[in-house]
Amino acid sequence: MIRYALTRLLLLAVGLAVASAIIFLTLRVFPGDVAQMIAGTNGTPEQVARIREELGLGRPLLTQYLEWIVGVFTGDLGTSFLTGTPVTAELADKAQVTVPLGILAMLVALLVAVPFGVLSAVRRGRADGTAISVIAQGVAAVPVVWAGMMLVVVFAVSLGWLPAQGFPTSTGWSTPWLALRSLLLPALTIGVVEGAMLLRFVRSATLQAIGEDFVRTAAAKGLTRTQALLRHGLPSVGLSIVTVLGLQVAGIVVGAVVIEQVFNLPGIGRMLVSDVGARDLEKVQGELLLLTAFVLVIGFVVDLLHHAIDPRQREAE
């Protein structure tokens, strides 16, 4: 187990290094010039050149990259070209919206996918099982933006139960109920759509478990099919859920970037979109690196969990 964990940790480090290089180089060939944006439309070439010199944009790319990476290891992601504020501080402030939103969305996705996926498999061929499968396929095909707008119309405009937009930035999580209420609709939007996708994998894994010999043997000894599945089949279903959930994390991160625009949430996703438009390279590369690291770390944890609970992997090792 320790050798496997160290191997996966090495691969995680390599993945982060490659991702950081790609992010840095991609942003440097991105069209536009932040120095020109700072100088304004009336800025002279001399003023633009002076700003580029002050920002250090004229130095070799390798030098700029190494300075950035050294800063990353010390927790310094640089300073915004446009606002002059530390990127690390801004990310920490925005993370109080994006991180809870992602966790809530993942919980909603699991609450949707696991019980309804198992029920759909157990009730296969019956009206309720077929209805769950059809509804899940329809919901999974819905764009997350449209789903968010529909939930706003129902729960915010018609029923008035939840706020349609915004986050209590002045009080933050010191007023937990207000903060939680502002994230419920966005989390439902992402979680229901991602949960519908995950449900199909849970259903397939459950159907496969139902057909396994050990489940049929347990049923032959007097248990009902549902009892045999719950007692002996769910561990193998759990392996599939853990694996697919790791892949779903990337979808949840992308969903958070989109949904923060819809619900006017001051999170990392919304900041990323505005910073890309403003060509604020230091902030954009810090935001992209943080989101990439989050996805890779989740994949690392999923691999360790999968290895820990699947005896076949340990035997193969």
TrEMBL record:
Subcellular location: Cell membrane
UniProt organism field: Microbacterium sediminis
Gene Ontology biological process terms in this record: transmembrane transport
CC annotations in GO: plasma membrane
Membrane topology qualifier: Multi-pass membrane protein
Transmembrane segments: 101-122, 134-162, 182-202, 237-259, 288-305
InterPro entries: BPD_transp_1_N (IPR045621), MetI-like (IPR000515), MetI-like_sf (IPR035906)
The UniProt record lists the keyword Lipid biosynthesis: no
Chief location bin: membrane
Lineage, top ranks: Bacteria, Bacillati, Actinomycetota, Actinomycetes, Micrococcales
UniProt keyword annotations, A-Z: Cell membrane, Membrane, Transmembrane, Transmembrane helix, Transport
Annotated protein name in UniProt: ABC transporter permease
Family affiliation: Belongs to the binding-protein-dependent transport system permease family.
Pfam families membership: BPD_transp_1, BPD_transp_1_N
